[in-house]
Design goal:
CATH architecture of the largest domain: Alpha-Beta Complex
Function: Catalyzes the oxidative sulfurization of hercynine (N-alpha,N-alpha,N-alpha-trimethyl-L-histidine) into hercynyl-gamma-L-glutamyl-L-cysteine sulfoxide, a step in the biosynthesis pathway of ergothioneine.
Strand order of the largest sheet: 12-11-10-13
Pathway: Amino-acid biosynthesis; ergothioneine biosynthesis
Mean pLDDT: 94
Keywords: Iron, Kinase, Metal-binding, Monooxygenase, Oxidoreductase, Transferase
Number of domains: 2
Oligomer: single chain
Cofactor: Fe(2+)
Number of strands: 14
Low-confidence stretches: 5-21
Helix content: 25-40%
Number of helices: 9
Shape: globular
Order of helices and strands: HHHHHEEEEHHEEEHHEEEEEEE
GO molecular function: gamma-glutamyl hercynylcysteine sulfoxide synthase activity; iron ion binding; kinase activity
């Protein structure tokens, strides 16, 4: 996801009141759990390497890990301590250092950043004070917009998890031996019997949300969309399928490529997804410090929008629109409702989806049968972010909240929408309405895709 920035002035309103009753104490427990889960993951990502690796820039595309660590604390200070708690600023002199809009990632190593020990102490100090504020904050529906339903606390938990995903990308880009390990995801049980595609019938559905308490501004408001009938891949496109595109000259034939994508292929000499290389007649990949054969039945990863679009054209298909993706993921034709997740309204479990850095790789195509949508499509949440054909645009009735720079400044044809989350995403920052966006050239992100065709 594109970088955020520090708040200017929090909006006085604009956060729609979630319908129905909310238990403030249950929300408080939910917020506490989300904040603690995020901080434990941040510790894993930053404690697993030496201080020299925290301060190094492993790629000009990414910040030093220590920048992310202090930025997490600074955002929490600005929103929870200052905006919600009304506390005096702890470190106002560092606000500019950790403003993501003020300094591009490539320039951040040259800034006078907090050293690792100081960054850890700062983030910990902020967190202790934030938990005190959470304990006393009124979270009822009639409260201030930032506090209502615990929105600000949920926003900060999502923000930290988004930067944890960013730091995991940095771990993938760093050289040297593996610093992180995780077990393999579960194998599919019925992949051989799954159809290659599912039919999503024509008709309206409710897109977006006005009810999810911690939904971010670009997910709002709920609105009706009419979608024509279409077919959608049951699972994301696999590495094996993508290799057939490569073997058929996919990277050498301009017919399949958007003009800008073809320029990218020629300029950078692209021949395969990022982190792949050919050795002794076999495709290998580097994954978090380990070199291994490319698994043919695993969703392809680290491809740009241009590569996904070219594959779809080669296959005689197309990328789904964002509306199509969400209808396939959320619409329940039996009730006419749009669900929170493909499987229903309950929060994800390890049986539903591959989330939270639990496995450090996508599961094989066809995994997680408990997570399939009423449409029959699977793995719509977790595993890989899925490129859609859609530009990142506001929904009708969009209101920026709590600051313009989260979504509003990125709307337009320059960014493409990704949906569904990846194995690197925590459940607090992933739901059926969640919208990610990035430049169509991006390859270092945990991105894949599935294809569609008209019915």
């Amino acid at each position: 996801m594109t970088d955020d920035r520090a708040p200017s002035a929090p909006a006085a309103d604009g956060f729609p009141q979630a319908p129905g009753s909310h238990d403030p104490e249950a929300l408080r427990r939910r917020a506490l759990d989300a904040l603690l889960t995020a901080r434990a993951r941040t510790a894993t990502l930053t404690d697993s390497v030496e201080d020299g690796e925290l301060t190094a820039q492993h790629s000009p595309l990414m910040s030093p890990l220590v920048w992310d660590l202090a930025h997490i604390g600074n955002q929490e200070e600005q929103w929870l301590l200052r905006a919600v708690g009304g506390r005096q600023a702890l470190r106002p002199e560092i606000d500019g250092l950790y403003d993501a809009f003020e300094h591009p990632r490539s320039a951040r190593p040259s800034l006078p950043l907090l050293a690792p020990a100081e960054a850890r102490t700062y983030a910990s100090d902020v967190r202790g004070r934030a938990l005190d504020i959470l304990e006393a904050a009124p979270l009822h529906e009639g409260g201030r917009p930032l506090e209502r339903a615990g929105f600000a606390f949920g926003m900060i938990a999502q923000h930290e998890q988004q930067h944890d995903e960013t730091m995991l990308i940095t771990h993938q880009l760093r050289s040297g031996p593996a610093a992180l390990t995780a077990p393999a995801p579960p194998d599919p049980t019925d992949a051989g019997s799954l159809p290659g595609e599912v039919l999503v019938p024509a008709g309206p559905f409710t897109m977006g949300t006005s009810a999810e308490p911690w939904a971010l501004d670009n997910e709002r408001p709920a609105h009706r969309r009419e979608v024509a009938a279409f077919h959608l891949d049951t699972s994301p496109v696999t590495c094996g399928a993508y290799q057939r595109f490569m073997a058929d000259g996919g990277y050498t034939d301009p017919r399949w490529w958007a003009p800008e994508g073809w320029d990218m292929v020629r300029e950078h000499g692209l021949t395969a997804p990022l982190f792949w290389h050919r050795d002794a007649g076999q495709w290998l990949r580097r994954r978090f410090g380990v070199t291994e054969p490319v698994p043919e039945d695993e969703p392809v990863l680290h491809v740009s929008w241009y590569e996904a679009d070219a594959y779809a054209r080669w296959a005689g298909r197309r990328l789904p629109t964002e509306s199509e993706w969400e209808k396939a993921a959320r619409h329940d034709p039996a009730t006419g409702r749009s669900l929170r997740y493909p499987w229903g309204d309950t929060d994800p479990t390890p049986e539903h989806a591959n989330l939270g850095q639990r496995h450090l790789r996508p599961a094989r195509a066809g995994a997680y049968p408990a997570g399939r949508a009423p449409s029959g499509a699977g793995q719509l949440i977790g595993d890989v972010w899925e490129w859609t054909s859609s530009d990142f645009l506001p929904y009708p009735g969009f209101v920026a909240f709590p600051y313009r720079e989260y979504s509003d400044v990125f709307f337009g044809p320059g960014h493409k929408v990704l949906r569904g989350g990846s194995f690197a995403v925590d459940q607090v920052a992933c739901r059926g309405t969640f919208r990610n966006w990035d430049l169509p050239i991006r390859r270092q992100i945990f991105s894949g895709f599935r294809t569609a065709r008209d019915a």
